[in-house]
Write a structure and sequence with these properties.
Radius of gyration: 55 Å
Shape: flat
Largest sheet: 4 strands, mixed
Number of strands: 19
Structural class: alpha+beta
Oligomer: single chain
Strand content: 25-35%
Order of helices and strands: EEEEEEHEEEEHEEHHHEEEEEEEHH
Length: 400
C-alpha cells in the first residue's frame, strides 16, 4: 500500500489559532492554512430546534486529514490534544466567537450565527457530548455550541441540509513527524471531496445561491475605463503639454495647468528634445527635427604647440641620456667583476708563495760579496712575488 508522510500542526502563541468558524455543506479539517471544508466530515446536530442551537466537533485530536500540496503530492496533517486545548483558549481570548461565514467565503459573513459556548471532551471528569450526537470522538475533541438567529439560515440552510457541519479557519505551522501512514488511513477520498459538487440536489444549490446573493447583494458591473493614448512632454520654456495620441501631425496639443488643460495658441514651440512643433487651431501641423550642430575643430594655439614640441624634445634627450648612462654603468659593472676576479687570483698565488717560503729550509747568512752569484730559492721566491705583484695589479689602479 502507498504510504505518505504525516505532519503535526503546531501552536505558536503569536501567530497560531482559529479566527473563524464556517458553516459548510461538506465540513472537514483541511490544510495547514485550515480553510477546513472538504476532507474530514465533522457533522453537527440540531441540539435544540426550538432554541436554534447547533452542536458539533470543531477539532479532533490525532485525526489524520488528507491534504495535497500545489504539485498534487498527498500528505496527512493532525492536531494533538495539547494544540487543540491551546487553540480553544486563544479563540476565546481573541474574542472570535462572532466570526462566522458560509463556505469559507470571507464576504459571506453570518451575523446571525455565533458561538455561545464550547468544551473539550474529558471522560475523567464527565465532560461529554450528549449521546444523541451519535459520534464517538476521543478525549481532547473540541466541541462548540452555535446560536442561529437568522430565520432563513435556520429554515432553508440548516434544517434542509445545505449547511450540515462546522469547519474552522486559522493558521498553524507544520512539523514533519517522520511518520508514514497508509494513504487509505483517512476516510476521506477524492470522490467524497467532490460530494458537494456532484450529489447536492439542484434545489439546495438554488437555495444556497439565493442565500449568498442576499448576503452580498447584486454587484454592479464595473465600467471599463476608456484608455486614451497620449504623450506627455515639456517644452524648452518649462511648459507641460500633452499630445494626443502622440507627437505627430494632426494630433491635438494641450497645455497642462493646475486648473486643467487648454489648447495651446497658434505658433511654433520647441520641445526639450529640440524638435520644433508648429501648431494651428490647437493641432500640430508640422514637426521639424532638431538639427545637430557640427562643431568645427579649433586650431591649436601655436605657442602651446611649440612648448609641447620642446617638452617632447627634452623628454627624448633625457631618454637618450638615460640609455647612455645605463651603457656606462654596465661597462663599470663588467670592469668591477673582472677586477674582483683578478684580485681573487692574486690572493691565491700570494698564498701559495707564502706557503713556499714557510717550507724553505733555514740557511746561515753568508757574507755579502760584490761579485755575482746564484740566487737562493728564498731570493727567487721574493723576486717572483714582486714580479707577480706588478703583473697582477688591477687595471683600475693604473693612472694612465
Amino acid at each position: 500500500m502507498d504510504k505518505i508522510p504525516v505532519f503535526d500542526l503546531l501552536f505558536d502563541e503569536n501567530t497560531s489559532g482559529v479566527d473563524t468558524v464556517s458553516l459548510v455543506n461538506d465540513p472537514a479539517m483541511e490544510s495547514h492554512w485550515l480553510a477546513l471544508n472538504e476532507d474530514s466530515p465533522v457533522k453537527f446536530m440540531l441540539q435544540s430546534e426550538e432554541k436554534r442551537i447547533l452542536l458539533g466537533a470543531l477539532l479532533i485530536p490525532d485525526k489524520l486529514i488528507l491534504r495535497r500540496d500545489q504539485e498534487g503530492n498527498a500528505f496527512f496533517i493532525r492536531f494533538s490534544r495539547e494544540v487543540i486545548e491551546k487553540t480553544a483558549l486563544k479563540y476565546y481570548r481573541d474574542s472570535n466567537t462572532n466570526n462566522t461565514n458560509a463556505e469559507h467565503q470571507s464576504e459571506w459573513t453570518l451575523p446571525g450565527v455565533y458561538m455561545m459556548g464550547s468544551f473539550i471532551k474529558d471522560s475523567s471528569i464527565g465532560m461529554l457530548p450528549p449521546p444523541s450526537l451519535n459520534e464517538d470522538h476521543p478525549d481532547g475533541t473540541w466541541f462548540g455550541f452555535f446560536k442561529v438567529e437568522d430565520d432563513e439560515v435556520w429554515s432553508k440552510y440548516v434544517k434542509e441540509g445545505v449547511f450540515n457541519g462546522f469547519s474552522i479557519e486559522g493558521k498553524f505551522p507544520l512539523s514533519n513527524s517522520g511518520e508514514m501512514a497508509d494513504v487509505n488511513a483517512s476516510n476521506e477520498t477524492k470522490q467524497e471531496q467532490d460530494t458537494y459538487t456532484t450529489e447536492m440536489d439542484t434545489e439546495k444549490k438554488n437555495w444556497l445561491n439565493q442565500f449568498l446573493t442576499k448576503l452580498v447583494g447584486e454587484l454592479p458591473e464595473t465600467p471599463q475605463e476608456e484608455t486614451v493614448e497620449q504623450f506627455e512632454a515639456v517644452l524648452s520654456d518649462g511648459v507641460n503639454v500633452v499630445a494626443r495620441p502622440n507627437v505627430e501631425i494632426g494630433a491635438e496639443l494641450m497645455e497642462v495647468k493646475a486648473s486643467g488643460e487648454s489648447p495651446v495658441s497658434d505658433g511654433d514651440y520647441e520641445m526639450e528634445d529640440g524638435r520644433i512643433l508648429s501648431v494651428e487651431a490647437g493641432k500640430i501641423t508640422d514637426i521639424k527635427e532638431k538639427v545637430e550642430e557640427i562643431e568645427e575643430p579649433v586650431e591649436e594655439n601655436a605657442e602651446l604647440k611649440a612648448e609641447l614640441a620642446k617638452v617632447s624634445e627634452a623628454v627624448a634627450t633625457l631618454a637618450e641620456s638615460m640609455e647612455a648612462f645605463k651603457a656606462e654603468l654596465a661597462k663599470a659593472n663588467e670592469a668591477k667583476d673582472k677586477a674582483e676576479s683578478e684580485l681573487e687570483g692574486f690572493r691565491k698565488e700570494a698564498q701559495e708563495l707564502l706557503t713556499e717560503l714557510k717550507n724553505e729550509p733555514a740557511t746561515e747568512a753568508a757574507p755579502r760579496i760584490a761579485t755575482s752569484r746564484k740566487q737562493t730559492s728564498k731570493e727567487r721566491a721574493i723576486a717572483k712575488g714582486i714580479a707577480l705583484t706588478k703583473s697582477k695589479r688591477p687595471n683600475f689602479f693604473n693612472n694612465n
